[in-house]
Amino acid sequence: MTPYAASSAPSRRSFLASTAVATAAVAGGLPLLTACGGGQEGRKEGTTSGKAARKILPAYVASSVVAPDIPAKNGSSAGFTRAVSPDRLKTSVPDKLGSGGELTIMAPLWGTPPDNGNPYYKAMNEAIGVQTKWQNQDGNTYDEKLGAILASSDIPDVVVVPGWNLNGKIPNAVNAKFADLGPYLSGEKVKDYPNLAAVPTDAWQRCIFGGLLRAIPLPASYVTNIAPFYRKDVFDKHGWQPPRTTDEFLAWAKEATDAKGGVWACSDMKWTAFNAFGVLNGSDKALWWNLQDGKLVNRVETEEYLEALEWSRKLFAAGVVHPDDKAGKTTNPAGTRFTAGKLLVYNNDLSDWFGKTSEQRAQNPDFEMAAMDVFTHDGGDPLLWAVQPCNIFTFVSEKASEQKIKDFLAIANFCAAPYGTKERLLAEYGVEGTDFTLAKGVPTKTTKGVNEVLGAFDYTGKPAAYVAHPDFPEVTRGMVEWQQRMGAFTKKSSFYGLTITEPGRWSNLADDFEQLEDDVVRGRKKIGDVQQAVSEWKKQGGDDLRDWYRELLDTTGSAK
Questions:
Q1: How do strand 226-231 and strand 343-349 relate by DSSP bridges?
Q2: CA 13, 286, 19, 200 torsion: positive or negative?
Q3: What is the DSSP pairing of strand 264-266 with strand 343-349?
Q4: Which are the contacts of 200, defined by CB distance < 8 A and separation ≥ 6?
């Protein structure tokens, strides 16, 4: 069985999703300088912010249903360290908003799709008043299915689109194929859906595509989601302290590595290196641009980017990185080696803190992990860059009737219910006695719940970011307080919070850099190869793309 594992938003890293993208390019054009009117206009490029966005965005009305034990701070999630007993659960959706109609929903799934008639789906359908029919697709190849569906005329009523799949032709298809939700949600209209009204404005801003509010967001903390995890139990045993600088980390790693004994200090630390050196970061490439000293700069042009790669290369060269990372093996992931004691530090999504702890405590009561505060190259305060406050979107087909749109919003409002409500418990855990049981008030999924309560209603609405693991309150507190500390050093780059559709002729321009980075840190390529790639990137369109982004920024402004 799987214990309580609530959190407010899935992420790319926690799903281990494929990064493959649709590659066909389309002709480019001028930036979208202001919001569109009321028409459904496709193939729009650019973004919408400032006054134009304020006319579109839903009003914000904070939820007061349940107060968190740890309030959100510095961009962090809120934290709930205690379970709410069933007799104290609140009701946030007193009346069914659905019409009883049917909706077909396509979503990614990492696992085996459950039967559409399973008890969880039936209970959700009954509670909301909508009959859902799920078309779950393999998350690892979802971009391929998504591209094919959007290129056809046979689009499901509702489609989930992860932000990492917004590449190639897909952004323009989104602008052309999905409905405007503004008439139902903009301004005060959102108050018909109180749980959606409590979704932060930053997350809604990301849902403006082609000048129209087209999606429901899955809100997330904007603090970096990549944490350097360490085996705190092993560190305590040896008297080691988390390092404060990159040099201290390398020195510790050399001391801690025992290749003959089968123990290495760390996995590939590239993601943490970007944070340690203050590199513009995030899976959304718009966040790789920032206005610095009056010039728009891309991260690949910065000294910090090269320094981060060079430090990561030093770790491999020193022999402190587990050999499976150098070989690129995926059959023995870093997290598995970490829990087995074969490596002592790895970086991954912050949600892994709970996942690994709950997995290990039953078999190894002494197991303890924690997240290091991001160390730096000079021992000073880190410079961290905000990630997007939403990276998964759910759309309604432009062919959907008004009633189908309202039925979808009924689902979204139900699923956006906050922690401590009957709706949230049902959405997260399913049917008591079938999908979960209660032990001292803490819900624990049964095997059936693990297999069926996933990959569906997860995507159709979420409340503001929160963490709730009452079975491991120390992990909840650790996760939220880490976000709060790191949030104090987090800045928002020029295009934070915006969804930008680049001209198609440049949309795949930077696709090869990730592979080049991996080759450099493993010693297969040199820093000079990166510098050469940057020079070619500029000539092949990087400088033109810079001009395009600068015009966009000068005309529409940022969303910070």
A1: antiparallel
A2: positive
A3: parallel
A4: 60, 219, 389, 464
pLDDT in tens, 444-491: 999 999 999 988 999 999 999 999 999 999 999 999 999 999 999 999
pTM higher than 0.70: yes
| Amino acid residing at 430 | G
Instruction: Kindly tell me the sign of the dihedral angle through the C-alpha atoms of 284, 286, 292, 298.
Output: positive
The pLDDT > 70 percentage for the chain reads: 91
Q: Contact, 48 vs 455, CB < 8 A?
A: no
At residue 284 the predicted structure's pLDDT band, cuts being 50, 70 and 90, is confident
Secondary structure (3-state) at 405: helix
Distance CA 207, CA 57 (A): 9
What mean pLDDT do residues 260-279 have?
97
Residue 270: is it exposed, middle or buried by C-beta count within 10 angstroms (0-12/13-18/19+)?
A: buried
Radius of gyration of the CA atoms of the chain, in A? 23
Q: Is there a contact between 470 and 27 (Cβ–Cβ < 8 Å)?
A: no
Residue 381 has pLDDT above 80, yes or no: yes
Q: What's the count of helices (H) and strands (E) in the chain, helices before strands?
A: 22, 20
Q: Quick one: tokens of 141? A: 């190849």
Token reading at 490: 């987090």
547, 313 Cβ separation under 8 angstroms: no
Q: Tell me how far CA of residue 77 lies from CA of 231, 354, 374, 507, in angstroms.
A: 24, 15, 18, 32
Tokens coding 4: 């309580």
Output phi, psi for 107, to 5 deg: -145, 155
